[in-house]
């Protein structure tokens, strides 16, 4: 009787371990799938944004990357061997998909100070490599061309590519709005991200600010 009971306990222990292992395996697969899904979703979003950008450049018409988007690409930023599309409006939703233009600042490529925000752990992680004198390239649509004429021209004519040189790098408090001050006597861009780069705090009180002036 005792041996039968011990055998039953042993068999139940084996079954419990098997069930536990199976549950762990299933959850591991779910986490793995979720990781792949998020990565695939992010990559596909970039493809749609790039397609929307090409449409904007070739036609002058703003096109949402996907039907429910509340933004569209307005410029292309090239820095530190990385090309990124700038979205209109620096909302939390837009920043999840790329750097975004702060609409209360100057228009991109126009005289004044245009500010662009981006997340420190994704799109603007490259800012930690910024040095004084570095070159940054901003491509926007040539606003001197009318929509009706763009389609009849080579698509390259619609592109206005400008070179900017990094003139200032500073760390400021998140409430310091001086970095957004406008000066229409120059054409500049201000790149802003959270700081420190390696902090696990979701919204630290400091901002890393890189300012570049058109040359």
TrEMBL record:
Record-linked CDD domains: Sortase_D_1
Entry's transmembrane regions: 21-40
EC number, as in UniProt: 3.4.22.70
GO MF annotation list: hydrolase activity
Transmembrane keyword on record: yes
Keywords annotated in UniProt: Hydrolase, Membrane, Transmembrane, Transmembrane helix
Family matches, as Gene3D superfamilies: Sortase (2.40.260.10)
Alphabetical list of InterPro entries matching this protein: Sortase, Sortase_D_1, Sortase_dom-sf, Sortase_proteobact_type
Keyword Hydrolase belongs to the record: yes
Entries under NCBIfam families matching the protein: marine_sortase
Protein name: Sortase A
Gene designation: srtA
């Amino acid at each position: 009787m005792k041996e039968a009971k011990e055998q039953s306990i042993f068999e139940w222990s084996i079954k419990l371990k098997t069930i536990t292992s199976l549950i762990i395996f299933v959850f591991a697969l779910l986490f793995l799938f979720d990781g792949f899904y998020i990565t695939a979703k992010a990559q596909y979003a970039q493809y749609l944004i790039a397609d929307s950008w090409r449409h904007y450049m070739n036609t002058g018409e703003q096109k949402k990357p996907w039907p429910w988007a509340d933004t569209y690409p307005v410029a292309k930023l090239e820095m530190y061997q990385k090309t990124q599309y700038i979205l209109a409006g620096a909302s939390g939703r837009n920043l999840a998909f790329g750097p975004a233009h702060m609409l209360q600042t100057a228009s991109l490529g126009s005289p004044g100070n245009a500010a662009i925000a981006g997340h420190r752990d994704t799109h603007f992680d490259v800012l930690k490599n910024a040095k004084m004198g570095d070159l940054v390239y901003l491509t926007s649509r040539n606003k001197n061309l009318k929509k009706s004429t763009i389609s009849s021209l080579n698509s390259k004519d619609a592109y206005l590519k400008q070179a900017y040189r990094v003139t200032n790098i500073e760390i400021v408090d998140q409430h310091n709005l001086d970095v957004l001050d406008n000066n229409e006597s120059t054409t500049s861009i201000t790149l802003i991200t959270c700081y420190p780069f390696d902090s696990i705090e979701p919204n630290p009180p400091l901002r890393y600010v890189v300012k570049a002036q058109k040359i």
